[in-house]
Model the fold of this input.
Amino acid sequence: MHSTMMQFPLTLTHIFERAGQLFGASEIVSRLPDKSLHRYRYRDFHERARALGGALQAAGLQTGDRVATLMWNHYAHLEAYFGIPCAGGVLHTLNLRLHADDIGYIANHAGDRFLIVDDALLPLYEKFRHLVKFERVFVVPLTGQPVPAGYESYEDFIRGNAVMQTPALDERAAAGMCYTSGTTGRPKGVVYSHRALVLHSMACAMGDTLGLKQSDSLCPVVPMFHVNAWGLPFTGVMVGCKLVLPGPHLDAVSLLDLYQAEAVTFTAGVPTIWMGILQALEKAPAQWKLTPGMRMVVGGAAAPESMIRAFDRFNLNVLHAWGMTETTPLGTTAHIKHALKNLPVEDQYAYRRKQGVPAPFVEVRAMTDEGNAPRDGVTMGELQVRGPWVAAGYYNLDGEDDKWTADGWFRTGDVATIDAEGYVRITDRTKDLIKSGGEWISSLEVENALIGHPAVQEAAVIGIAHPKWDERPLAVIVCKSGKSVTSAELHAYLTPQFAKFWLPDDYSFVMEIPRTSTGKMLKSKLREQFRDWQWS
Ligand code: AMP
Done:
């Protein structure tokens, strides 16, 4: 028997046109390079994004053609988020924090035809310009300066009055793409379909995932060049909420000012951003009046429990989430299940600090050499996922098939435990696992405990060769400015929290820990730095 339902394609076009129709008055606020605020409404965004789509089509854009962006989070980037895919193109966000040579490689590998770039980022473009062959480059004037000679203005381009033709798109057609910011090997491209982005938006809007509503004031701090700012621009426009886009100003004070001025209710970013914000709040607790209960999604790296607790004291609600470029990215969110709400608040932290339970349609398993790990919250295995917004391969790349199992699960490269309630806890990257005398040690857990010490700003725990145990953990510590602590004090601090063999054998104090373009600790570099470490 067949269903009598329509074949109705799930495309961004629907989200975009509906938002234009229903939410014309919703505001979009963008921070410009000079720190002033640009404001307009959905009706302006809708009109301009359609104008962009029409102009691209008039310039020869065919369905499936890639259009690159090199931009911070602001209104013009949002126009590209919808104008490009709804015109049939593929939005390819370039990560401006990568090395210029890598950006050039990525643009070439993707076969990008056009580029839209912030005027403030032209110096970066100039660095890889010799490597790439965009047909046309459109410059978004944000700084108030005239567009330099030799470049086309984005504003002139979209003012050309070309009417966008809305192509009938297959929901499986490509809508966007993003390259992983891998720490080893060449960057790998992930292509998002309309269907994947639509389903992802619906899942993100759900109350038990991110719970976005039309009444929210949404500020994605996570850059729009990294996994579509976790899909938030798509979800935000779908629900029709106010958008607050921070431009290039991501320091704690600028963000706190923006949260206050625009009554932000929902924001999202990586832990390093939140550590900075926490410090600013602790230094001047009365300086900002934030929306009570403001939700803050923390992902991209583990949210330490001490951070979740500290924000609770400011009535700011951290929601821990896990995902990857390959998973669009929503995988898990750490809401407290109803039944667990009966637990004393203290005990609830044990769940909130985990990465959480999988979103609907995302399936997870932890695999050991013996097969599926028991869901006991202790046994570690490689986290594998599958679902309608999980990549099934990389764009035009051979030799990466081992990232998928024979039965179609994506091997995340993360090591995790899953407990009886289904909460996933990431314990490491496979590459960063420490094996001491045949036993695994979770570097992430020890790091998170270290960050709970009042003098510690950052901590990385790495495995270093050891004559007796193969490998032993070394803790690399960055102290908070003006604070200090000794190895013995840290050791005493950790001792009650862990089995003895998990405790680092040594502590090394440094000024900074190397990080990737998206804020993750570059442990491969640290291991190299400490390769010749002599155990004391
Ligand atoms: P990316 O594709 O650059 O977003 O990186 C994805 C990787 O970031 C994951 O495979 C994890 O290793 C890490 N990651 C993301 N979210 C979390 C989290 N909440 N806790 C720990 N690691 C995370």
In short: The pocket of adenosine monophosphate is lined by residues 180-181, 227, 299-302, 320-325, 329, 355, 412-414, 426, 429, 518 (CB under 6 Å). The mean pLDDT is 95. The two ends are 73 Å apart (CA to CA).
